[in-house]
Design brief:
The complex is a heterodimer of chains A (114) and B (114).
Chain A: E1 5-7, E2 10-13, E3 19-24, E4 31-37, E5 43-50, E6 65-69, E7 75-79, E8 88-95, E9 104-105, E10 109-113
Parallel strand pairs in A: 2-10
Antiparallel strand pairs in A: 1-3, 3-7, 4-5, 4-8, 6-7, 8-9, 8-10
Chain B: E1 2-5, E2 10-14, E3 19-21, E4 24-27, E5 31-38, E6 44-50, E7 56-58, E8 64-68, E9 73-78, E10 87-95, E11 103-104, E12 108-113
Parallel strand pairs in B: 2-12
Antiparallel strand pairs in B: 1-4, 3-9, 5-6, 5-10, 7-8, 8-9, 10-11, 10-12
Classes of the chains: A mainly beta (114), B mainly beta (114).
Chain lengths: 114, 114
């Protein structure tokens, strides 16, 4: 498809398990972002990839969170030893990378940690 | 660094009535401003943006917003709402020299009643 694709759309896991969330950005977009949307909260920035530059990880809440972007395209967000407070919708967005601010969002991956 | 405050978490309004969703920001640098809309069970999509030029910006679905630098505001308005406008609305800001990294407000849930 032409839009940002995220998988899985829903993930239920047990506390302490690791999870991986995948994002396929729009073809040709050089910038990729991960945000977290918790119930009743706004969007919390997690990490930003721009081309071949080192990612901006300033929003990752703890060292249990990591992300990579392979070949400048697909990105995986990994949460190790999940906790109940990690339950949220994880949103991925991509953009052309130049400074117009238009991000294109996927529909998100809803993570529930029991 | 930038921050965004959306003063109302929920705004109930009757169909065909006007609505204003308030957004205030703080920043030490020049900014770009955005409104995104999230319909139920969908990803965010851009409603409108202010980069430069005219302070009155028109977006999709009849929405408009006005950039007021002295009041550091970017309120969203629509003269007559429809049931289909029921959604979550997010105001966002980025520094004009900061790539596309957006800081989002907490969101305002617009509830249009018949």
């Amino acid at each position: 498809g032409a839009g940002v694709s995220q998988s899985p759309s829903n993930k239920v896991t047990e506390k302490g398990k690791d999870v991986e969330l995948r994002c396929d950005p729009i073809s040709g977009h050089t910038a990729l972002y991960w945000y977290r949307q918790s119930l009743g909260q706004g969007l919390e920035f997690l990490i930003y990839f721009q081309g071949n530059s080192a990612p901006d990880k300033s929003g990752l809440p703890s060292d249990r969170f990591s992300a990579e972007r392979t070949g400048g395209s697909v990105s995986t967000l990994t949460i190790q030893r999940t906790q109940q407070e990690d339950s949220a919708v994880y949103l991925c967005a991509s953009s052309h990378g130049h400074n117009t601010g238009e991000l294109f969002f996927g529909e998100g991956s809803r993570l529930t940690v029991l | 660094a930038q921050s965004v405050t959306q003063l109302d978490s929920q705004v109930p309004v009757f169909e065909e009535a006007p609505v204003e969703l308030r957004c205030n920001y703080s920043s030490s640098v020049s900014v770009y401003l955005f409104w995104y809309v999230q319909y139920p069970n969908q990803g965010l999509q851009l409603l409108l943006k202010y980069l430069s030029g005219s302070t009155l910006v028109k977006g999709i679905n009849g929405f408009e917003a006005e950039f007021n630098k002295s009041q550091t505001s970017f309120h969203l308005r629509k003269p007559s709402v429809h049931i289909s406008d029921t959604a979550e609305y997010f105001c966002a800001v980025s520094g004009s020299n900061a790539g596309n990294m957006l800081t989002f407000g907490g969101g305002t849930r617009l509830m249009v009643k018949p």
